[in-house]
Specification:
Strand content: 25-35%
Number of helices: 3
Organism: Gelidibacter gilvus
CATH class of the largest domain: Alpha Beta
Strand order of the largest sheet: 1-2-3
CATH superfamily of the largest domain: K homology (KH) domain
Distance between the termini: 43 Å
Order of helices and strands: EEEHEEHHE
Protein name: OsmC family peroxiredoxin
Pfam families: OsmC
Number of domains: 2
InterPro entries: KH_dom-like_a/b, OsmC/Ohr_fam, OsmC/Ohrsf
Helix content: 25-40%
Radius of gyration: 17 Å
Length: 140
């Protein structure tokens, strides 16, 4: 299976990129780097892709296990190398679950399945970065 994405320069430091879903997004850089700060930053989008990939897995597995949470959020942090080309050498993903009487064992199983088996973006990150994960339960 092959994905195709077309990215078109829109002037200055702006690029518009499509997605196989047909949706588009705008990329740009900060004003101090010559951009307008009008779009998403490419490296940070990688962190979003990691969280999105894993989050989709976790929600799917939790639904199959009939586990409900009132809210779910992932905080993803990337530490860049000092030298060019700068890339994330260490990444941390914090999984935060909110609700009443959270089933911690099933939630942990869902997260572990994503981390260890299902999330292809997580596996891509492991090829170039140390990936740390943690789960935080916020029982009401």
């Amino acid at each position: 299976m092959e994905d195709k994405v077309i990215t078109h320069w829109k002037g200055n430091s702006q690029f518009e990129s499509d997605n196989p879903s047909g949706k588009t997004l705008l990329m740009d850089t900060s004003e101090e780097n010559g951009g307008y700060n009008s779009g998403l930053r490419p490296k940070a989008m990688m962190l979003s892709a990691l969280a999105g990939c894993s989050g989709l897995d976790v929600v799917s597995v939790l639904n199959k296990m009939k586990v409900t949470v009132s809210d779910f959020r992932m905080d993803t942090y990337g530490q860049l190398t000092e030298e060019h080309p700068k890339y994330y050498h260490t990444v941390s993903v914090e999984y935060h679950f909110y609700g009443e009487n959270l089933d911690e064992s099933k939630i942990k199983k869902a997260v572990d399945l994503s981390i260890e088996k299902y999330c292809g973006v997580m596996e891509m990150f492991r090829r170039f970065a140390k990936v740390n994960t943690s789960i935080h339960y916020h029982n009401k």
